[in-house]
Automatic annotation (TrEMBL):
<dbReference type="InterPro" id="IPR025921">
    <property type="entry name" value="HmuY"/>
</dbReference>
<protein>
    <recommendedName>
        <fullName>HmuY protein</fullName>
    </recommendedName>
</protein>
<keyword id="KW-0732">Signal</keyword>
<feature type="signal peptide">
    <location>
        <begin position="1"/>
        <end position="21"/>
    </location>
</feature>
<dbReference type="Pfam" id="PF14064">
    <property type="entry name" value="HmuY"/>
</dbReference>
Amino acid sequence: MKRILYSILIALLSTACVKYEALPFTGKVLPRRSGYINNVTNDWIYYNLRTGEIFNAYQVNADIIEGNQKNRLDWDLAFCGNKLRTNSGTSGNGHGGAADMGFQGYDRWTSVSQLPHDLQWVVDTDNVSITMSQREWISYTVAHNITGIPWFDPNKGPQQTKTNANPLLNKALVFSGPPPSYTPSFHTYIIRTADGLRYFKLQIVSWYDESIEIGDTGGRISFYCDELK
């Protein structure tokens, strides 16, 4: 009897010592941090979802200078800090846009045939708030003879300005603070490509690189993005 109890105890202890590893992140991660942290307000990373090509992947404005994206149809989705663009409206002359499919449910959407015929598409506008870079704020204050207003206010955070971006996707990763915090909505969004012919589902997962366990400073957003067939 003692031998049986001893065997049961060893089995229980062995089970308690099992380490369950988290499943590896299988989505995408931005190649670098973008936005005001690089001393440029409109520091956008552009994705051509149809080909997989990335513009400005490792250097600010290396491939597409701010403003030049308007007349280009070779990009579909762009990131700058926690702001996102589609090739539509004031951001681009394409037939892009975004639609909200609600909380979670990413795996549910697999086919274009599932999309409702009356789906509400949101195009980009020129009145989305974005954090202004400290360098550009200083240049602005000098040019307009503004004094006594710092770039960073401890009660309000850094200075803001307006940019071209998608107002619906502005809710995908919401900033609050100080102290700074970025909270994903975990909604699934549908992105229509610049040619208006293909559709990709998108879900923002984290402000941080989910493939790094310790030491990530944030800004390399983790997200899922897959084409609807």
